[in-house]
Structure formats: C-alpha cells, structure tokens
Amino acid sequence: MTGDTRTDCSGVRNVIEVEDLTKVFGTITAVDHVSFEVREGEIFGFLGPNGAGKTTTARMLTGVIPMDGGSVRILGHDIRREPVRAKQRFGVVPETSNAYVDLTAWQNLMLMGDLYGLDRARAQGRSHDLLETLGLYERRDQKVQGYSKGMRQRLILAMALLHEPELLFLDEPTSGLDVQSTQMILSLLRALNADGTTIFLTTHNMEEANRLCDRVGIIRSGKIVAIDAPEKLKTAIDRVHRIEVSFDREIGGDLLSGLAGITGAARTGDKWQITAENQDTAIRSLVSFSRQEGIAILTLNTLAPSLDEVFLRLTGEERS
Ligand SMILES: Nc1ncnc2c1ncn2[C@@H]1O[C@H](COP(=O)(O)OP(=O)(O)OP(=O)(O)O)[C@@H](O)[C@H]1O
Ligand SMILES: [Mg+2]
C-alpha cells in the first residue's frame, strides 16, 4: 500500500519528512531540533564530522531508537505509530554490522527473508542476484566470521536490499573500505537510484557526498547548518584548496603568500602548506616562481580541504 505522503507545491513527493527531531543523552543534545525533507528519487547525503549526530538521526528515522521530540514520517507512515508498515518498505545498512557471524552469508540472507516474510523461492532468487552483483556468490557458504570488512559491508547491503525496498538508509556505507569494495557499493547505489530507489546516506566524506548526492544536509553538533545541492559544497571546497609543496632550498613564506592565487603559506617540517583561492592559478604561480628563482620543486600535492574548513566557509563561524 502507498502511504498518504504529502507533496510540495512543485508536485514532488517527500519520502522522508522530519520536523524538529530531537534526541538527548544525559547532558548531550545529540540531535537538536532537526528538520528536513528527502524527495522521492533523490540521493540525500547527511554529512558531518564524528559525533555530529548522524547515526543518532539515522537510528531515529529507522525506528531503532525512540525520539525525544519532533516527528518523522517515512513514506507517509509516522515512524512511531506505524513502524512495521514503514519498515516493510525501506532497507537499512546500519553503522555496525547486523549480520550473524556464526552463520554463512546465505543463511543470513535466508533469515532476513523470513523476517520480511518473503517466500523461499523469491528470497533465494534475490540472494543469488545480489550476491553475484556484489561479488560474494562464490563465498556464500562461508561463515561471516571469516569475511573481511569490505565483504561484510557488501553482505549487509545485500541483506538490506533483499525485500526490494523503495527507500534505502545507509550509515557511512563505505567508511574504512578499500577502493574495490567502495566502487562496488557506490555503483550499485547509483544503479538502484537510476531504477527509482530513494537513498539516504550518512557520510563524513565530502568528496563522496559531492560525487553521489543530489542534495546534502550538513550537520554539526546536532544542528543542521546547511541543506543544499552539492554545488554550494563544491564552491566551498574549491575555495579552500590546499597544496603541499617542498623546494630544494630555503625560501621565505612571504614570497609564497604573495603569489597569485595563494592566500596563505605555513611551514610544517620541510614542506609548505599553501591555501589557495584558485588551485590552478596557485600551481601555475608556484611553477613560474620556482623557474624564475632557479629553485627546484621536490614534491607538490593537492589536498582536499577538511570538513572544518568547509564548515567555516559555509557558516562563517568557528566550531564550538
Ligand atoms: N547511546 C548513547 N548514549 C550516550 N551518548 C550517545 C549515545 N549515542 C550517541 N551518543 C552521543 O551523541 C552524539 C552524536 O553521536 P552519533 O553517533 O550520532 O554521531 P555521528 O555523527 O554518527 O558520529 P560518527 O561520525 O563518529 O559515526 C555524540 O556526542 C555521542 O557521544
Ligand atoms: Mg555515526
């Protein structure tokens, strides 16, 4: 059945509606009057540093922990009043693995199928396809105990997708995974989204949010500080590029910070940390400077800005 999800004035259906969501642990307000919507068919990224309240929010949205204030509607269902109905329609990849390590991947999937009331043939067919897609089919009869972190994460994703949910929640799905597992997961998420699955994911990885998401909500100390298309995030990232450079001889920091495109230069060890308004201009400046002065560049690396730097850009305030 379809919930009585509200549509906004442009006719877009909201599959997640959060209003004033709040969670308090003792003296810590982990989630502080958070409100946002996730539209049907989008990939929404919930971005924030460690301890910002991402997992706590995701747990309340999926009915794992009770909320202390506010309201959550998932696919038209109030998560407090109709948790079972809502859960039939979404899948969850939690922060910590929910697979039983004493069981094989296949047994975990069959158990999940039973939980969702799928008939055996459908559970088997889906499990086969998902394990193939995620590169685990050959290892299906091995106990999860012997799985690597990346394999476990792929299995959990398969478990979350078994009942073909129309909405998928993922809490830091690629955190700590290698390139291969990360790519496998991200490409499956893109394919699911292309087929119409709405995706809510938490991450502290700006580049991932940038590449994957249609919109990004940024949370810090339990509060939403910005919700926007990643374009704004991109602009903030582009403005605070960092370059690490080292030369074959001593030079003064004033010389570097005076170059076109460079806003600051600080020394750490034998390297200079350069902040740049425009990365391309800054690199060109460094190259022509070294040529003019007859200095050799020993190393030159471009570094992504830290979340803190982006927060400063987006909110114009120091971290509390
Ligand atoms: N069960 C709990 N009891 C007490 N405090 C908690 C509990 N769960 C979370 N917190 C606190 O709430 C705040 C938000 O934690 P949360 O796990 O939601 O952050 P997060 O954004 O997911 O961080 P991370 O990136 O490290 O996963 C933190 O200060 C954390 O210590
Ligand atoms: Mg977390």
Question: What's this, in brief?
Answer:
This protein is an alpha/beta fold.
Main CATH class of the largest domain: Alpha Beta
Work out the helicity level: 25-40%
Please state how the strands of the largest beta sheet are arranged side by side: 6-7-8-3-9-10
For the secondary structure, the number of strands is 14
Using the CA coordinates, give the radius of gyration: 23 Å
The ligands bound in this entry are: adenosine-5'-triphosphate, magnesium ion
**Oligomer classification:** single chain
Low-confidence stretches: none
Overall pLDDT metric = 90
CATH fold-level topology of the largest domain = Rossmann fold
Judged by helices, strands and strand pairing, the structural class is alpha/beta
**Main sheet properties:** 6 strands, mixed
CATH architecture of the largest domain: 3-Layer(aba) Sandwich
As a percent range, the share of strand residues is: 25-35%
Q: Termini, distance in Å?
A: 45 Å
Overall form: globular
Please report the number of helical segments. Answer: 11
Order of helices and strands: EEEHEEHEHHHEHEHEEHEHEEHEH
Name the CATH homologous superfamily of the largest domain: P-loop containing nucleotide triphosphate hydrolases
Number of domains: 2
